[in-house]
Each structure stands twice: as C-alpha cells, then as structure tokens.
Amino acid sequence: MNHISSVTNQPLGNNIASGQPLSGSAQGNYQGQQVRLLDAKPFTASVAEEMSFAASEKRESDSLRNRKINDRFGGKSAVQQVAEDYLKLVAKTPQAEAMRRFAENLLDGFFRNPQQTMQQLKNFSSDISDQYLILKLAAQLAGEMLARDKQAKDKLKNKNQLQMAKAHFEGLAEQLLNSSENAEASIIAGININQVVSSPAGQALNSAQNLKDFYRETIFDTNNLLSAYEHILNHCSEGQLEQGIALLLRGLAADYNAQHSSIEKPKLQLIMSSMQKLKTLTTIRESALGLFSQFSRLQPQVTHQGIMAGG
After folding, report:
1. What pLDDT digit, counting tens, does each position of 64-94 carry?
2. Which end of the chain has the least Cβ crowding within 10 Å, N or C?
3. Cα angle 134, 138, 141; round to 5
4. Residue 54: which domain range?
5. What does the DSSP assignment read for 103-146?
6. Is the pTM of this model over 0.85?
7. 182-188 average pLDDT score
C-alpha cells in the first residue's frame, strides 16, 4: 500500500507539463502483484491524432457539401433560384414573350423616368410574383446588354445607364421581398403554381391573379378542415366547389414537388390531406343533392326548404 501511495502521489502533472519522461521508479506492488504506472503521453498523442483525423474528415465532408450547394445554387436565395428556373422553363412560351417585351419596355422607360417603374409594373400586373419576375427579367436584360457592349468604348454613357438600370431593378426586386412577412413565400407560391392557374381549367374557374390569391390565402390562413371549407365557400360558387378543390390540389402538388416550396413541405402535406377529405365530402354532398333532386321530382309537394327546415 505504501508503495502504491508513493507512486500515485508523485507530481505526474509536472512531468507531463514539462515534457519530461516518467521515472522508471513509477512502479510498485499491489496485493502481491507488481504494477507500473505507464506514461500517458503516447496514449494522449494517439487520441489527439484520432480526434484530429475525425475533425479533418468532418471539415472535408462539410466543405464538399457546401461546394455542392454553392455549385448548384451559386449562393442565391431560394426565391432567386425559383425565378431563374421558371424563366428558363417558360422561355419560349407566349407568356414569357409577353413578359420579356414588357421588361424591355420597362428598361427603355427607365432611361426617361425611373420613378415610374413601379407604376408601370402595377399596370402590367398586380400580382407580386409577376412583378418580381419582371424586375428580375429587366435586370437580366440590362446585364446582357452590358455584356454585349463591354468592348465598345464609345458607349460609355450607355454603359453607365445600363449599370444604373440593373441596380435599380434589382433594388426594387429586393424591396418586394421585404414588403411583408409572407412576401417571399407569396412570390415562390405564385411562381410554383403559375402553370396551374394559367391552364384552361384554371382560367375557366377565375383569373390567374384571383386564383393565386385564393391559393395563398388557403396555405397561409386556413388552420383546420372547417376553416378550409369556409374559405373555399367564400371564393367558389355553389357549382364550383369541386373545381375549386381540384385546382387547390393541383396547386398544392405543384408547390410540393417544386425544389423550393413556398412553405414547409410537411405543412403542405397536411393541407393536401385536408383537401382530399373535403373532396370526398363534397362528392358525397353532390350525390346527396342529386338524390334529393330525384326525390323532389317524385314528391313535388315536398320543397327543398321544407326538408331543410324539418331536418
């Protein structure tokens, strides 16, 4: 016991701190067995090496992951990427051509009166996602013109104007993003469902602008099945309930399947589930009304109002 006490009471910290090796006398007998206190430095170094290796692997993994993200998104925000991807997707469509012509007019108008930009934009469309797309397209056009004129030294004045125009449109796009709490989500939602609301089925139901507002209010403001049903009743006539729900489901699917959805995908899933339930209930309701109509023809003396009052 005395041997062990003399060993354990040695100032090992001083030896380690000073970098000196442990004395060979750091040994003794314990319960008849010879024991020896080993130098901890080699083990500490080994552990430190393992930890350094693990940390290095993590840094490399994080770096690789970040490079992949940056390569894919170029450091852009979700809404910027959504807008750019959409403009590429619809580049050859009549809708994109109309937007491009207006963006060109907006760029020409900037040289005359920059203050009128937003008013011109609102005259073209009151929808925030359309306005954002136009501003990004106008900034893109200014950038393309700058690139073409890069070597033309005699167009210095035009270059300065184009640089001012590009910064102007990008600044207005940023203002739109900060215009309200849900502005960015509203823009992404509008872009993600653009093709749904512009389809013949969508246009038969209402204007693209109203349908976008209808969709946004659904995902932002409805909290349960009842509120969703009341919301749809407020926007759709008696004969349009099924079409309204079907359009919402198509919009939800497009938003959910997009790389960047307007809101969290789990919440979109919950809303889709509610819409499916409403679709089923609406189908049952329409069937019941059909049966009631047949019954009324067989019993002309029984009125719709009478049955409802009696029920």
Report:
1. 344 333 444 456 789 999 999 999 988 888 8
2. C
3. 135
4. 1-66
5. HHHHHHHHHH-GGGHHHHHHHH---HHHHHHHHHHHHHHHHHHH
6. no
7. 96
